[in-house]
Structures are given as structure tokens and as C-alpha cells.
Design a protein that fits this description.
The protein is mostly beta strands. The chain contains 3 helices and 22 strands. The strands form 4 sheets. Strands 2, 3, 5, 7, 8, 9, 10, 12 and 13 form a 9-stranded mixed beta sheet that branches. Strands 4-6-1-11-14 form a 5-stranded mixed beta sheet. The relative contact order is 0.17.
Length: 292
């Protein structure tokens, strides 16, 4: 696991952000939950797919913060909030947008796999519940498959904004109040092929490391080109191991899982049952060797 942990550390340091204060004006009908602020860091990681590379152009990162004390005990506030609203419109009743300091640029998403992440944005924000995260995409998006670079266009009807709604009740995570949030970019769900053209419609989910668990291990041989899937009735994850067979799946809800190693090139699958995942813990799996 030492090599994998070194890569995780390298990936975390690959990009870095400098936090600055960008406070928004308080709406007249909001009552602050308190007079303070808090630091927020947003990290980017990947749920992999079988492309050589996927390059995503990220320009801005914003968060929508609900500072109203009257909403503190009701997580349903904001569920029907229109994504097009901002705090200059009267319909925007469930928070205000605050811009984070972002490390803008083109990210090769597929480098952020097997537990590797990078700091995407950070800032000092008003204290309150985080209802949404909004990414603004640029136009310099592409992918590489079979060694050939292909343009990656936004899916027709998709705007340059990507909205990620945050629901603590769904995550069992209290993620709305966390100081660090991870965005898991599901590449396979986000890319579609139509008439020879690849289209991007980003699909992201959020998690916090404090309230989710991790699974790591090693699967051999490389000739099997294995993939790893972990699942139960409430959650799932996927990994494509590194060349040395090491893999890591993060952001898993606490629970009991089934772990499946799928082989190819004549190698048989292997399945492990009763894998226990606990919050803020790492579950190490014994080395699996697929047979042919």
C-alpha cells in the first residue's frame, strides 16, 4: 500500500488553492445562524472509466449557503430551488451564492482515481448550511481513447453550469455543515457517444471523508485487466486498479458490502462477501489473484 499512499499524497498536492474571503450581502429576510464564518475546501476525485484520459475545463466554483436560522432543523428547504436562481432574484429563498478561490484549468479527471484527489477550490464563507455547489465549465474539454484525441462537447441543452445539490438526509452525512467536501466525478455516467460525437453531461456526487469509509487492496495478475466493484442496496463504487494491481474506493456509506473482481482475457471473476465499511475508517482487503 505504500506506493498507493504516496500517489494519494502526490495527487493531493498536485493542485492547491489559496483561501480568500468573498462575503455576499445578507438578504433582508434571512436571519444569520450566527455571526461567524467558516473555511470550506472542495476536493475533486474520480469514479473511473475505460478512456485513456478525460480533460475537463473548470473555470469557477461557487457554493450556495443558507444562513437562515429558521431552516436549521428542516433539511427539505431548498429542494425545489431553481438552479437558475441567484441571490439577486426574489425567488431565491434558500441561500446566497459565494464564489470560492479556484485553481482554474483543465483537469485530467482520470488521474484522480484510486483515492487520489486534488484541492479544487477553497474560501472563507458565511456560516450556514451548504445547499448547492456550482461549477462553471470552459470549452476546452476533450478525451483520449485508443490514443486518439476527441472533442468533448457539452450535451445539447446543457449549460456551462454544473449544479450539485447537497442533501444531508440522503447522505446520512450532515455534509451541509462540513468544512471539507469531495466531488466524485462519475466519468462513465457523464459521457455519451452519439453519431460519432462524444458529449459531456457531468454527473457528480458529494461525500465527506469524516462520515464515509474507504476500501483498498490489490488484485493480480495485470494480464487479467481486472476491474473492482463494491456494492450493497444503498451504495456502490468502482475502481480500475493501477499497473501494480493496487486499488482504492472512497466515499462509501457505512455498511456491509459485496466486493466483485471482474477478470478478462480468460481469467475468472472472484467475489467476496460481508465486507464491512465503517465511517472514517479504511478497510484493507487481502490480495486477490484471479485464475484462468
Amino acid at each position: 500500500m505504500k506506493n498507493l499512499k504516496k500517489r494519494v499524497l502526490y495527487g493531493t498536492m498536485l493542485f492547491f488553492g489559496v483561501a480568500v474571503f468573498m462575503a455576499a450581502c445578507q438578504k433582508q429576510n434571512d436571519v444569520p445562524s450566527n455571526d461567524g464564518t467558516k473555511n470550506l475546501a472542495v476536493y475533486l476525485t474520480d469514479d473511473p472509466c475505460n478512456f485513456d484520459s478525460v480533460f475537463i475545463d473548470i473555470r469557477y466554483v461557487e457554493v450556495k449557503i443558507d444562513t437562515s436560522r429558521k431552516h436549521d432543523d428542516d433539511d427539505s428547504h431548498g429542494d425545489n430551488d431553481d438552479d437558475d436562481d441567484d441571490d439577486n432574484k426574489h425567488r431565491d429563498n434558500y441561500g446566497k451564492w459565494d464564489t470560492l478561490t479556484v485553481t482554474a484549468g483543465v483537469y485530467n479527471i482520470l488521474r484522480l482515481r484510486n483515492g487520489i484527489d486534488t484541492l479544487l477550490a477553497s474560501g472563507n464563507i458565511p456560516a450556514g448550511k451548504i445547499r448547492k455547489i456550482r461549477l462553471t465549465l470552459g470549452t476546452n474539454n476533450s478525451l483520449v481513447i485508443g490514443g486518439v484525441t476527441k472533442p468533448l462537447l457539452l450535451f445539447p441543452g446543457t449549460k456551462k453550469y454544473v449544479y450539485v445539490k447537497i442533501h444531508s438526509k440522503d447522505e446520512d452525512d450532515d455534509i451541509q455543515n462540513q468544512s471539507a467536501i469531495w466531488l466524485d466525478f462519475d466519468v462513465c455516467k457523464s459521457i455519451r457517444l452519439s453519431n460519432g460525437q462524444y458529449y459531456l453531461k457531468p454527473f457528480l456526487k458529494t461525500f465527506s471523508k469524516k462520515k464515509t469509509g474507504r476500501v483498498e487492496g490489490k488484485v493480480l495478475p495485470r494480464a487479467a485487466s481486472p476491474t473492482v466493484t463494491i456494492f450493497n442496496t444503498a451504495d456502490s463504487g468502482f475502481a480500475i486498479p493501477e499497473n501494480d494491481g493496487e486499488y482504492k474506493i472512497v466515499g462509501l456509506k457505512e455498511g456491509t458490502y459485496t466486493l466483485k473482481f471482474k477478470g478478462s482475457n480468460g481469467y475468472f471473476d472472484t467475489t467476496l462477501s460481508n465486507i464491512i465499511v465503517r465511517k472514517n475508517k479504511e478497510t484493507e482487503i487481502r490480495t486477490i489473484t484471479l485464475r484462468n
